[in-house]
Amino acid sequence: MKEYMQQLGQKARAASIEMSRAESATKNHALFAIADAIDAAADTLKSENQKDLQAGKNNGLDAAMLDRLELNSARIAGMSEGLRQVAALQDPIGEITDMAYRPSGIQIGKMRVPLGVIGIIYESRPNVTADAAGLCLKSGNATILRGGSEAINSNKAVAKCIQQGLTEAGLPADAVQVVETTDRAAVGELITSSEFVDVIIPRGGKSLIERISKEATVPVIKHLDGICHVYIDAQADLQKASDIAFNAKTHRYGVCNALETLLIHESVAQQCLPDLAKRYIEKGVELRGCEQTRNIIDCGAATDEDWHTEYLAAILSIKLVADIDQAMMHINQHGSHHTDTIVTENYTLARRFLREVDSSSVMVNVSTRFADGFEYGLGAEIGISTDKLHARGPVGLEGLTSLKYVVLGDGQIRV
Length: 415
Description:
Radius of gyration: 23 Å
Strand order of the largest sheet: 10-9-11-8-7-12-13
Oligomer: single chain
Shape: globular
Helix content: 40-55%
Largest sheet: 7 strands, parallel
Distance between the termini: 55 Å
């Protein structure tokens, strides 16, 4: 295993040199070619994905995991559209900013450059293979992709499309390599390959992220969980609030930007909670509430553990709060710094919420489901980072680059 992973690393390092000097037109050619290959291979992708779905069912994967694993027509079209959107984005590599003259006569600025080799470890979602490859390619990086064993057939099928597009554009095929073994030892080798890998980006469940954060000797860009909140303020438009809270929870359950805890100002709870609870129950959502919540609607009791839980399922915890301060205190204490929304018509309170909630995405009057690279205009995303360094929020092209100083002169010497 060690030898196999070293070979991947050596190939990726060599490819990263070529990628760092690839012209934008060449990279875009590859992205369009990969998108076309994915469209052409849609039936094959679905057929290979069915093998993974069937194996997942046989192995007892839950509904949320199976949902993330599925490659249907819409998701395949989304993969190719995401690649085309990435191609349409401005290439950040080589951009020079902040140029300024110093008293010595030298001119100093910053140039945006690739990170180098990016190792990406992810579970379930085979569309991540295309998203990650596209973003790494456009940002001039090479990448080693290690998907979950539950998606091995799907990932291999997507990888063939990627290899086809790279070859057509004249770029090194080794710029995107998919680890073809399901042996868990491959992860351990990848996250300690500091000689070949510059950064690791994990996407998956809490146990995977915690393991990588603990064991990696390569820098990690990560997110832990997506414990997202919607706070319905006393001065909220209650129809707007109901629609936002309903969408944030029920649009999709098994995603990191889904609502997990609903906070409601106690002064409007009697007005909005019964009808909203009815909508949730009709959709099949299990509700768990604080004592005040259970005085208004019939639901299970929420425990302290519920406030810290990312359900990724049709379960929602509800808590009534006295004011915005209590709401923000709850979010900052129990949340995961992912995405949180306030619903209010009070401009001053909205500004406070934006400033004081310590999350990677903070929103006003909008569903948490918009916390997504595609929706943010990034074309696609490699993940949503809840770290504060090196990137925060949806990680797109710029998050996969770094800066170096460039200095211009006309023969100056230091005296």
